[in-house]
Specification:
It is an enzyme of class 3 (hydrolase). With about 220 residues, this protein is an all-alpha fold. Helix content is about 80%, strand content about 0%. Helix 4 runs parallel beside helix 7 (about 110-125), helix 4 (about 40-65) runs antiparallel to helix 11 (about 195-220) and helix 8 packs antiparallel against helix 10. The chain binds ligand VIB. The site of the ligand Cc1ncc(C[n+]2csc(CCO)c2C)c(N)n1 has 12 residues, from helix 4, helix 5, helix 8 and helix 11.
Protein backbone atom coordinates (compact mmCIF):
# COMPACT_ATOMS: atom_id res chain seq x y z
CA UNK A 1 0.00 0.00 0.00
CA UNK A 2 1.23 3.49 -0.72
CA UNK A 3 2.00 5.70 2.26
CA UNK A 4 -0.76 7.98 3.48
CA UNK A 5 -0.01 11.68 3.04
CA UNK A 6 1.09 12.62 6.53
CA UNK A 7 3.98 14.86 5.48
CA UNK A 8 7.48 14.60 4.09
CA UNK A 9 9.34 13.42 7.20
CA UNK A 10 6.82 10.61 7.73
CA UNK A 11 7.21 9.47 4.10
CA UNK A 12 11.01 9.32 4.46
CA UNK A 13 11.10 7.77 7.93
CA UNK A 14 8.46 5.20 7.03
CA UNK A 15 10.45 4.09 3.98
CA UNK A 16 13.64 3.75 6.07
CA UNK A 17 12.04 1.75 8.93
CA UNK A 18 12.68 -1.98 8.26
CA UNK A 19 9.80 -3.13 10.48
CA UNK A 20 7.10 -0.74 9.29
CA UNK A 21 5.07 -3.48 7.59
CA UNK A 22 5.63 -5.87 10.51
CA UNK A 23 3.97 -3.16 12.66
CA UNK A 24 1.08 -2.04 10.46
CA UNK A 25 0.33 -5.56 9.14
CA UNK A 26 0.94 -7.48 12.37
CA UNK A 27 -1.13 -10.61 13.01
CA UNK A 28 -2.94 -8.72 15.81
CA UNK A 29 -4.03 -6.09 13.26
CA UNK A 30 -5.09 -8.75 10.76
CA UNK A 31 -7.14 -10.49 13.46
CA UNK A 32 -8.85 -7.14 14.23
CA UNK A 33 -9.62 -6.79 10.51
CA UNK A 34 -10.99 -10.33 10.19
CA UNK A 35 -12.86 -9.93 13.47
CA UNK A 36 -11.58 -13.20 14.91
CA UNK A 37 -9.25 -11.74 17.56
CA UNK A 38 -10.31 -13.42 20.84
CA UNK A 39 -12.06 -10.92 23.12
CA UNK A 40 -9.67 -11.81 25.94
CA UNK A 41 -6.69 -10.80 23.79
CA UNK A 42 -8.34 -7.50 22.93
CA UNK A 43 -9.07 -6.74 26.59
CA UNK A 44 -5.54 -7.67 27.59
CA UNK A 45 -4.30 -5.24 24.93
CA UNK A 46 -6.69 -2.51 26.13
CA UNK A 47 -5.57 -2.82 29.75
CA UNK A 48 -1.95 -2.52 28.72
CA UNK A 49 -2.84 0.30 26.35
CA UNK A 50 -4.40 2.24 29.22
CA UNK A 51 -1.04 2.15 31.02
CA UNK A 52 0.66 2.99 27.73
CA UNK A 53 -1.52 6.10 27.34
CA UNK A 54 -0.55 7.37 30.80
CA UNK A 55 3.09 7.49 29.76
CA UNK A 56 2.24 8.65 26.27
CA UNK A 57 0.37 11.64 27.74
CA UNK A 58 3.44 12.36 29.90
CA UNK A 59 5.61 12.29 26.76
CA UNK A 60 3.33 14.80 25.00
CA UNK A 61 3.40 16.97 28.12
CA UNK A 62 7.20 16.85 27.91
CA UNK A 63 6.86 17.91 24.25
CA UNK A 64 4.87 20.94 25.43
CA UNK A 65 7.75 21.74 27.79
CA UNK A 66 10.28 21.37 24.96
CA UNK A 67 8.24 23.28 22.37
CA UNK A 68 9.98 26.13 20.54
CA UNK A 69 6.98 28.01 19.23
CA UNK A 70 3.44 28.82 20.34
CA UNK A 71 2.08 26.53 17.60
CA UNK A 72 4.17 23.61 18.89
CA UNK A 73 3.05 24.25 22.45
CA UNK A 74 -0.58 24.41 21.34
CA UNK A 75 -0.33 21.16 19.35
CA UNK A 76 1.40 19.27 22.18
CA UNK A 77 -0.94 20.52 24.91
CA UNK A 78 -4.01 19.79 22.75
CA UNK A 79 -2.80 16.19 22.41
CA UNK A 80 -2.38 15.89 26.19
CA UNK A 81 -5.92 17.24 26.60
CA UNK A 82 -7.34 14.75 24.05
CA UNK A 83 -5.50 11.81 25.61
CA UNK A 84 -6.41 12.57 29.20
CA UNK A 85 -10.02 13.66 28.62
CA UNK A 86 -11.10 11.47 25.68
CA UNK A 87 -8.88 8.52 24.80
CA UNK A 88 -8.17 7.38 28.37
CA UNK A 89 -11.80 7.68 29.62
CA UNK A 90 -12.84 5.69 26.51
CA UNK A 91 -10.53 2.85 27.59
CA UNK A 92 -12.00 3.05 31.11
CA UNK A 93 -15.52 2.84 29.64
CA UNK A 94 -14.82 -0.12 27.32
CA UNK A 95 -13.06 -2.04 30.11
CA UNK A 96 -15.89 -1.29 32.59
CA UNK A 97 -18.44 -2.71 30.13
CA UNK A 98 -16.29 -5.87 29.95
CA UNK A 99 -16.30 -6.23 33.74
CA UNK A 100 -12.90 -4.63 34.41
CA UNK A 101 -13.71 -1.80 36.81
CA UNK A 102 -11.54 1.27 37.32
CA UNK A 103 -9.59 -0.09 40.34
CA UNK A 104 -8.83 -3.31 38.41
CA UNK A 105 -7.70 -1.27 35.41
CA UNK A 106 -5.50 0.94 37.60
CA UNK A 107 -3.98 -2.22 39.12
CA UNK A 108 -2.79 -3.48 35.70
CA UNK A 109 0.76 -4.80 35.94
CA UNK A 110 2.81 -3.25 33.17
CA UNK A 111 4.14 -5.79 30.65
CA UNK A 112 7.86 -5.60 29.75
CA UNK A 113 7.07 -4.67 26.11
CA UNK A 114 4.97 -1.78 27.40
CA UNK A 115 7.70 -0.61 29.78
CA UNK A 116 10.31 -0.83 27.02
CA UNK A 117 8.29 1.24 24.57
CA UNK A 118 6.99 4.00 26.82
CA UNK A 119 10.25 4.53 28.66
CA UNK A 120 12.13 4.60 25.36
CA UNK A 121 9.91 7.45 24.18
CA UNK A 122 10.21 9.35 27.46
CA UNK A 123 13.98 8.91 27.50
CA UNK A 124 14.17 10.28 23.95
CA UNK A 125 12.49 13.39 25.36
CA UNK A 126 14.57 13.62 28.53
CA UNK A 127 17.93 13.30 26.78
CA UNK A 128 16.95 14.90 23.47
CA UNK A 129 14.93 17.81 22.15
CA UNK A 130 11.49 18.33 20.59
CA UNK A 131 12.61 16.57 17.37
CA UNK A 132 13.80 13.45 19.23
CA UNK A 133 10.41 13.28 20.90
CA UNK A 134 8.49 13.74 17.64
CA UNK A 135 10.52 11.00 15.89
CA UNK A 136 9.80 8.60 18.78
CA UNK A 137 6.10 9.56 18.97
CA UNK A 138 5.36 9.54 15.23
CA UNK A 139 5.04 5.75 14.63
CA UNK A 140 2.34 5.51 17.27
CA UNK A 141 0.17 8.37 16.04
CA UNK A 142 0.68 7.96 12.29
CA UNK A 143 0.90 4.15 12.25
CA UNK A 144 -2.58 3.88 13.76
CA UNK A 145 -3.76 6.35 11.11
CA UNK A 146 -2.36 4.14 8.36
CA UNK A 147 -3.83 1.00 9.95
CA UNK A 148 -7.23 2.70 10.30
CA UNK A 149 -7.22 3.71 6.63
CA UNK A 150 -6.33 0.19 5.48
CA UNK A 151 -8.89 -1.52 7.73
CA UNK A 152 -11.73 0.98 7.12
CA UNK A 153 -15.04 -0.70 6.33
CA UNK A 154 -13.94 -4.15 7.53
CA UNK A 155 -16.96 -4.39 9.85
CA UNK A 156 -17.04 -7.07 12.54
CA UNK A 157 -16.79 -6.87 16.32
CA UNK A 158 -13.84 -4.44 16.25
CA UNK A 159 -15.37 -1.96 13.80
CA UNK A 160 -15.70 0.73 16.50
CA UNK A 161 -11.97 0.55 17.17
CA UNK A 162 -11.18 0.51 13.43
CA UNK A 163 -13.48 3.39 12.52
CA UNK A 164 -12.08 5.57 15.34
CA UNK A 165 -8.74 5.59 13.53
CA UNK A 166 -10.18 5.52 9.99
CA UNK A 167 -12.50 8.47 10.75
CA UNK A 168 -12.06 12.00 9.42
CA UNK A 169 -11.29 13.43 12.85
CA UNK A 170 -8.36 11.08 13.53
CA UNK A 171 -7.10 11.38 9.94
CA UNK A 172 -7.10 15.19 10.31
CA UNK A 173 -5.05 14.80 13.50
CA UNK A 174 -2.51 12.68 11.57
CA UNK A 175 -2.20 15.39 8.92
CA UNK A 176 -1.75 18.01 11.64
CA UNK A 177 0.94 15.97 13.43
CA UNK A 178 2.71 15.33 10.10
CA UNK A 179 2.69 19.08 9.43
CA UNK A 180 3.86 19.81 12.97
CA UNK A 181 6.86 17.49 12.48
CA UNK A 182 7.82 18.96 9.08
CA UNK A 183 7.52 22.47 10.54
CA UNK A 184 9.57 21.57 13.62
CA UNK A 185 12.35 20.14 11.41
CA UNK A 186 12.47 23.27 9.22
CA UNK A 187 12.40 25.55 12.27
CA UNK A 188 15.40 23.82 13.90
CA UNK A 189 17.44 22.39 11.00
CA UNK A 190 16.63 24.79 8.14
CA UNK A 191 15.01 24.17 4.76
CA UNK A 192 17.41 21.33 3.83
CA UNK A 193 16.54 19.35 6.96
CA UNK A 194 16.14 16.08 5.04
CA UNK A 195 19.84 16.19 4.09
CA UNK A 196 21.15 17.09 7.54
CA UNK A 197 23.17 14.50 9.56
CA UNK A 198 20.66 14.84 12.37
CA UNK A 199 17.92 13.50 10.11
CA UNK A 200 19.41 9.99 9.94
CA UNK A 201 19.57 9.82 13.71
CA UNK A 202 15.92 10.84 13.90
CA UNK A 203 15.06 8.16 11.30
CA UNK A 204 16.71 5.61 13.61
CA UNK A 205 14.56 6.78 16.50
CA UNK A 206 11.46 6.38 14.34
CA UNK A 207 12.61 2.86 13.34
CA UNK A 208 13.23 1.88 16.97
CA UNK A 209 9.80 3.09 18.08
CA UNK A 210 8.33 1.12 15.15
CA UNK A 211 10.12 -2.02 16.36
CA UNK A 212 8.68 -1.42 19.84
CA UNK A 213 5.17 -1.15 18.35
CA UNK A 214 5.69 -4.63 16.85
CA UNK A 215 6.59 -5.84 20.34
CA UNK A 216 3.45 -4.23 21.75
CA UNK A 217 1.14 -6.06 19.30
CA UNK A 218 3.00 -9.30 19.98
CA UNK A 219 2.50 -8.78 23.73
CA UNK A 220 -1.22 -8.42 22.96
CA UNK A 221 -1.26 -11.83 21.27
CA UNK A 222 1.01 -13.62 23.72
CA UNK A 223 0.10 -12.36 27.13
CA UNK A 224 -3.61 -12.73 27.85
C1 LIG B 1 0.59 0.90 21.61
C2 LIG B 1 -0.19 1.98 20.99
N1 LIG B 1 0.32 2.61 19.92
C3 LIG B 1 -0.39 3.61 19.36
C4 LIG B 1 -1.61 3.99 19.86
C5 LIG B 1 -2.40 5.07 19.20
N2 LIG B 1 -2.49 6.27 19.94
C6 LIG B 1 -1.89 6.49 21.10
S1 LIG B 1 -2.19 8.04 21.67
C7 LIG B 1 -3.10 8.43 20.37
C8 LIG B 1 -3.74 9.78 20.22
C9 LIG B 1 -2.84 10.78 19.59
O1 LIG B 1 -1.62 10.92 20.16
C10 LIG B 1 -3.16 7.35 19.51
C11 LIG B 1 -3.89 7.35 18.27
C12 LIG B 1 -2.10 3.30 20.97
N3 LIG B 1 -3.28 3.63 21.52
N4 LIG B 1 -1.37 2.31 21.52
Amino acid sequence: MSAPEYGRAFTLWRKAAPEWDAYTRHEFVEALRRGDLPRQDFLHYLRQDYVFLIHFARAWALAAAKAGTLAEMQAASATVQALVHHEMPLHVQVCARAGIDAPALEATVEAPANLAYTRYVLEAGYSGDFLDLMAALAPCVLGYGEIGTRLAGSGGPYSDWIETYAGAEYQALCHDVGGLIDGALAYRLGPDWAGSPRFDHLAQRFATATRLEVGFWQMGLDGA
